[in-house]
Amino acid sequence: MNQSVIHIIKNITSANSSRSLLQRFIAYSFRQSIRCKFKRFGDRPVGESLKILDREYRTDEWTNIPDKVIDLIERHDPLYKTPGNPIYLIAESLRQHYTDFECFQFRDPVVTTWQNFDSILVPSDHVSRSKTDTFYVDKQHVLRSHTSAHQSECFKRLANTTKHQALNDPKFMIIGDVYRRDEVNRTHHAAFHQAEIVQLYSEQHCRMATTNLFDESNETRTDHCQERHNLNAIRIVENELKSQVESYIHLMFDSTDGDPIQMRWVPAYFPFTHPSWELEIQLPRNKSTNDNGEDLDKSEWLEMLGCGIVEQSILDRDGHSNRIGWALGFGLERLAMLYYAIPDIRLFWTRDTGFSVQFDRLKPFERYRYRPISAYPQKIFDIAFWLPAECSEWSANDVHAIILEIGGHLVEQAHLMDEWTRPKDGRKSNCYRIVYRSHERALTNDEVNRIHHRIEQALVKELNVEIR
Ligand code: DAH
């Protein structure tokens, strides 16, 4: 793992081993209150119509969404649904790991302030509710600042279908784009992605058979347990939560030569869970060396997720008073940046094919290290040719070999774009697209033309094709 990537990702968080719970509470509040350089950016005249994904709102003194952010929302395909985007691959890896978890995706990120804050017990004077931290559509609507905003409606939806089915206790995940007012730099972006994963358990749940979920004589909340909860049951749920997360992190980050990743659970504060934890990881030795092979400081820990035991008042309210459960929230960008060594959060949004082509064919959990794309423009040229009449031995690999041999490092991508057979005589034609780009300079048309022409000549000579 490249040192600068670790350094950058560390900046997203500020994990510090020795923080007390109070300090973590303050850190939580502070983190939610992101310093915003352009506080008034996005303010609009009052009383105008504002359309987001075909729903219409009327601006008021709370509205603070810039057009650029609306463009991100209305982008044709959300990143988590776009194969070839690392966010999609990470989301898929979670779906594969958390099998049988129902997956909810709420395309529209506009939620009510009740959903975003009250439904998960965020205090009414909490800084995250301020206009400087959250994008307000109007006084009553915001862009969700976390996927936790949808917990309540998922609970309610599942309350009816799973009422009397212990073996069918709700397990679900919510994957979505979330928005926070923030400065934009390598580690911060107004839009990012989260996966909220939740599992509930009822008393009849087979593993729970030996213990009661509730202990009505338990009237006081401790650091380890909410009031009314039975500590033994909580320990089982806590253990399931943690072991599932740990096995995912091992799958993702253990080194290929068997060096396991180091993890630790640190007490944390979230308004909607108690007790709560954050998971911090320390990359294995061979991953935490810099490019010169020097070890990084092994005492540096990265914060990976927040989680905890769901506040019982939420479950009582949403139709699951006979259940207890855990919830967790992963940040998909952080996982992706770490897993693929992607140094800049803005890259996830690029339409540069030099980026997407690197992830197009990857499968979830397939290790890959991102290669930086050039800042110079691409030159896109096509070659169309007739295959030789006798082409039983034809192999596309030969075409690629010739393209790479002549184009060398100036070829960023080459792929078969079109195949066609002429009906009248069955003759086959191929069209290849070659994307040229240099890491050092902007290529000129003349220069690329010359290389392209030499590739054409070599294809004719070596493979006996006829240029069309
Ligand atoms: N909603 C939290 C955030 O955005 C993340 C989170 C923390 C989700 C703990 C959870 C949880 O479900 O239990 O910072």
UniProtKB/TrEMBL annotation:
The keyword Transmembrane does not apply. Residues 175-364 form the Aminoacyl-transfer RNA synthetases class-II family profile domain. InterPro entries: aa-tRNA-synth_II, aa-tRNA-synth_II/BPL/LPL, Fdx_antiC-bd, Fdx_antiC-bd_sf, Phenylalanyl-tRNA_Synthase. Residues 374-468 form the FDX-ACB domain. It is an enzyme of class 6 (ligase). Its main location: mitochondrion. Keywords: Aminoacyl-tRNA synthetase, ATP-binding, Ligase, Mitochondrion, Nucleotide-binding, Protein biosynthesis, Transit peptide. It comes from the Eukaryota. Its EC number is 6.1.1.20. It is found in: Mitochondrion matrix. Signal peptide: none annotated. It catalyses: tRNA(Phe) + L-phenylalanine + ATP = L-phenylalanyl-tRNA(Phe) + AMP + diphosphate + H(+). Pfam families: FDX-ACB (PF03147), tRNA-synt_2d (PF01409). The keyword Ribosomal protein does not apply. Belongs to the class-II aminoacyl-tRNA synthetase family. This is phenylalanine--tRNA ligase.
